[in-house]
Design brief:
Bound molecules: iron/sulfur cluster
Strand order of the largest sheet: 14-11-15-10-16-17-9-21-20
Strand content: 5-15%
Oligomer: single chain
Length: 969
């Protein structure tokens, strides 16, 4: 009986296989040998191992090496009269949709479902995968009935007709001359005699298989039984030696029993190997693991036979940034969806989904596109002119409306920013617009979608120039997108079906999500970065396994809405347990061959909607448990300073986050600039309010003249709305100026008409839709009604009245000025009115009427710490600066008799909120208006010009301060 040969998992499988071939070379024609591996990568390593063997006679023809899928495919091609073609996923989904429609038309269970292509596609994709798996497992499914309530209606309908769908699908595939890898395996498993005859004496070696699907196993078994194929496993030697077999090798034990086979050792187990060194790091997140990994790698004496294993391929890019400067080979399937290229494509798709269909797009999406690094790196000659040009595009987008056309921007050419001629820059920008906007506009078929994607790829390749030589991962992703996704879109039977944009983008996203970019190591030397699957059959002396959490090792499959796990068992498909066993074998096989293992895992809180804690992998648990058994001690995470601790917790010293809003140190240059501004621009009430509320904020705004980045106000421009209300009230009262007004005289309809006209005129600038404008008008109308009702008898004397006076402070003549919304004449004198569309503060006059406080002010030296404390006290007291300053400005000319001022609370009841309470005597009022206002303003300005710093006065107002960023550093 042909035994199954076992290379102990502590030995190197590739070396053992090379040894065998070298030993056989003198007596066998190796070119008549075919070696079949589970996947492609071991073949590369075997070729390299044979090339390095000095004891192999040269020249010679090497054995033929194939991955299992390729082997089965070639067998089928040889045995078929007309070799079938492998169908793409979209072809299969299209075929299945036809099958399901046929069943629905016959009055079946699909009749009640919304059988549109859009509704079917997600189910079709899952159904195609399920039928593929059923074929590979040789299962001819029965209909699964009575699933009502157990699965979703679509799943219920599909599973209820599964037998019929499977039969019609296979017939359809056959009729079209299509196949899949699963159907190939099934077809071959039904023709074992023919396979055997077709091999024509060729010698076969099946190297390193574990957990084959039943159809594949049937083919291999027959060739092992009847054709003398050699079966080599890399597994627990106990299968050959006897004794307890390690649990991850149980699948091999099952095969031995099922095949009635005997296992023999291909080579001896290494005698007394040095005990494996194991170190564990527990980090809070990926960063802390990378920090530990970086230090581990830096301490290595060499990087030969060293592998960094990433169970989660998403960690590849961060890991690349932490590797030492040595030769590194990447060997893994990287999800295309995680690449920068896929992000660019996603940005374009979102842009078109949120667009209005008439060539206008959401401003945020336009900014996201203009910031895409892959667009900004496009070249004209050797220059990348879009880098600076798109900053100016972004500024334009921010200052425009919520929905805008990319053609609105006239491309402001600045010769100081680039060496490229204007025409060249315009041509490049136009190509970007064509590739990202025009090509994706109005798509109706998958072929057009594929052509749009191909156009984008073409632009990136042509205009990317030398950049692709540095962006290696992105370059591979570009190739994959172009050579795999585009043909799938343009070449399937669905390519010319008409679909809406939603379905086209859904299909494109589905293809991107399923695509893996395969990185192959070449040459094989140096440090290797591999995915878990890519480690199969390879052996490394040193292993670094990153992110070894339960989510990654063994990893959980996402729930399948079509076929939940319990139903998989009903169909005879493997469940989670079998999948976990495969992962366990991969892990332990890899581990057994290493001399030094460093396992890093995350134990911190995972951010996200379902925030949870990462759990270390069950395999790590087992390794720690083995350690505890060997040492008789519990293994707990220890600080890194405990040198010989087996499990170290990576932590960073965390200091309490203190509020860090340092004051601005006033240099002579700053002081001079402030003095210049005061002299040139004067002082307004709102500037004084800023200085009093937070000197740091006032410095940013009033001295540096910093303005917050302009942005499109998506929920309406409040400042513009406030201006509109002021303008409407001015226009409303203008004809009544100088007249005595009683409440009954005010024409409500005229005011509303002015407001409605103003809203209509400003609708675009306010970013208001028709609905928004109608709602805003209704609310404004109600408030204006309240305002009219609350207006007392009065005479309107001035509207938007500009008043000013001079103040001498700190050796400067400073102009105090401001614009008063309205000046009325009342019984006791003139009344200053200020319309307030926001919230009105109470108690603004309390501090002004406090004589003791002003006595302290007079006693303080400007610039002193006492002065700073006193001003802070005034700010905290809620002292209002604006209204008393207006009163002072009004009184300063001598033409007016200012008596009081009031906020008009338009946001609430429309009533006036007087500044001075009724009990304030006229003398006290005059004292405030004529003496205390100039005293306080003069004191404040002198203090600012003498102070050594402008403090940050933090409080609740910081929440809506525009300068939080620079303030907090
Ligand atoms: S964040 Fe607060 S403390 Fe800083 S400048 Fe703005 S208001 Fe002042």
């Amino acid at each position: 009986m042909n035994p199954v040969r076992i290379v102990p998992w502590t030995a190197d499988f590739i070396t053992a296989l090379a040894d065998r071939l070298v030993a056989e070379a003198p007596r066998l024609d190796l070119s008549r040998t075919r070696i079949v591996f589970p996947h492609n990568r071991p073949a590369r390593h075997l070729r390299a191992a044979l090339a390095a063997r000095a004891d192999l006679t040269r020249p010679m023809l090497l054995p033929r090496m194939q991955a299992l899928d390729e082997f089965l495919r070639s067998l089928r091609q040889n045995l078929s009269e007309t070799p079938p073609r492998r169908a793409g996923k979209l072809d299969r989904i299209g075929l299945l949709h036809g099958v399901v429609r046929g069943l629905g038309l016959a009055g079946g269970p699909f009749a009640k479902l919304n059988d549109t292509a859009r509704a079917f596609f997600p189910w079709g994709a899952r159904l195609a995968s399920l039928l593929e798996e059923l074929a590979r497992h040789g299962v001819s499914p029965q209909d699964l009935e009575h699933l009502e309530g157990a699965v979703l209606p679509w799943a219920e309908a599909l599973l209820g007709q599964l037998g019929g769908i499977d039969a019609a699908y296979k017939a359809g595939m056959l009729e079209r001359g299509w196949t899949t890898s699963g159907l190939d395996a099934l077809w071959l498993s039904e023709r074992l005699d023919e396979i055997e005859a077709s091999l024509d004496g060729e010698r076969l070696i099946f190297a390193g298989f574990h957990a084959l699907a039943p159809t594949e196993e049937a083919v291999l078994r027959r060739l092992w039984e009847r054709s003398g194929a050699l079966v080599l496993w890399h597994t627990d030697p106990a299968l050959a030696l006897g004794g307890e077999v390690a649990w991850p090798a149980r699948e091999h034990a099952r095969v031995l029993r099922s095949w009635h086979a005997k296992a023999v050792l291909e080579r001896e187990t290494p005698k007394n190997p040095a005990p494996q060194v194991r170190r564990f790091y527990e980090g809070f997140d990926l960063h802390s693991q990378l920090y530990a990994l970086q230090r581990e790698l830096a301490a290595l004496p060499d990087t030969q036979s060293t592998a960094i294993v990433l169970p989660d391929p998403g960690a590849l890019i961060p890991v690349m940034h932490h590797l030492p400067a040595v030769d590194v080979n990447i060997s893994m399937g990287y999800p295309l969806q995680r690449s920068g290229l896929a992000q660019l494509l996603e940005t374009i798709l979102v842009l078109h989904e949120n667009g209005d269909g008439a060539g206008r797009f959401l401003w945020r999406d336009l900014i996201a596109l203009s910031r895409q690094p892959l667009l900004r790196m496009l070249r004209a000659g050797v220059d990348t002119p879009l880098r600076s040009a798109y900053q100016s595009w972004e500024r334009h987008i921010r200052s425009s409306s919520a929905l805008q056309s990319p053609h609105e921007w006239a491309l402001a050419f600045d010769p100081d920013e680039t060496n490229v001629a204007e025409e060249e820059l315009r041509t490049l920008h136009q190509e970007v617009l064509d590739a990202c906007f025009t090509s994706f506009q109005g798509l109706r078929t998958l072929r057009q979608t594929g052509q749009a994607v191909a156009g984008l790829c073409d632009l990136l390749r042509r205009r990317g120039g030398q950049a692709w030589q540095h962006l290696l991962i992105d370059a591979e992703c570009l190739l994959r997108l172009w050579q795999s996704v585009v043909p799938e879109l343009t070449g399937s039977i669905l390519a010319d079906e008409e679909y809406d944009q939603g379905l086209l983008f859904l299909i494109l996203r589905h293809l991107l999500e399923a695509e893996r970019v395969s990185f192959e190591p070449e040459p094989l030397a140096g440090m290797q970065v591999l995915g878990m699957l890519e480690t199969r059959l390879l052996r490394f002396r040193r292993l670094f396994i990153l992110d070894a959490t339960e989510d990654n090792l063994p990893g959980a499959s996402a729930p399948d809405p079509l076929l939940p796990d319990p139903l998989r068992l009903a169909l005879g498909l493997p469940g989670a347990r079998e999948r976990d066993n495969v992962a366990a074998h991969n892990f332990y096989r890899l581990l057994m061959g290493a001399q030094e293992v460093c396992v890093l895992y995350q134990a911190g809180v995972r951010p996200g909607a379902l925030e949870g804690k990462s759990v270390r992998s069950r395999y790590v648990e087992q390794l720690l448990w083995e350690l505890e058994r060997a040492t008789g001690k519990l293994v707990k995470p220890q600080p890194e300073c405990v040198i010989d601790a087996p499990l170290k917790a990576v932590s960073f010293p965390v200091a309490a986050i203190l509020p860090n809003r340092p004051a601005i140190r006033v240099t002579p240059e700053i002081r001079q600039k402030l003095a210049d501004r005061l002299r040139d621009k004067g002082v307004t009430p709102s500037a004084l309010e800023d200085w009093l509320a937070c000197p740091k904020k006032a410095f940013y705004r009033r001295v540096l003249n910093l303005r917050p980045m302009q942005e499109v106000a998506e929920d309406g421009d409040r400042a513009l709305f406030g201006e509109l209300v002021h303008r409407v009230l001015r226009d409303f009262f203008s004809p009544l100026r100088g007249q005595v007004i009683t409440p009954g005289m005010l024409d409500e309809a005229a005011l509303f008409a002015l407001m409605e006209a103003g809203l209509a005129e400003q609708a675009e600038a306010l970013n208001l839709t028709y609905d928004g404008r109608v709602a805003l008008f209704a609310a404004t109308r109600e408030r204006l009604q309240r305002f009219l009702r609350a207006t007392p008898a009065t005479s309107v004397m001035e509207l938007e009245y500009v008043a000013e006076t001079q103040l001498h402070a700190a050796g400067l003549d400073i102009r105090l000025h401001g614009q008063i919304d309205r000046v009325d004449l009342r019984e006791t004198g003139h009344m200053v009115l200020d319309y307030k569309t926001g919230t009105v503060k109470d108690g603004g006059s309390v501090a002004w009427l406090d004589a003791e406080l002003f006595a302290r002010l007079a006693a303080c030296a400007p610039g002193s710490p006492d002065a700073a404390t006193l001003l802070a006290e005034l700010a905290d007291s809620g002292l209002d600066v604006q209204l008393p300053m207006y009163l002072h400005l009004l009184g300063a000319s001598g033409d007016w008799r200012p008596d009081n001022a009031a906020w008009v609370a338009l946001k609430s009841d429309g009533a006036e909120r007087p500044f001075f309470p009724v009990e304030a005597e006229p003398k006290e009022r005059a004292q405030v208006i004529q003496k205390r206002v100039p005293a306080l303003v003069g004191f404040l300005l002198e203090h600012l010009l003498a102070a050594s710093e402008f403090p940050a006065r933090s409080g609740r107002h910081c929440d809506w301060c525009d300068y939080q960023g620079p303030c907090c550093g």
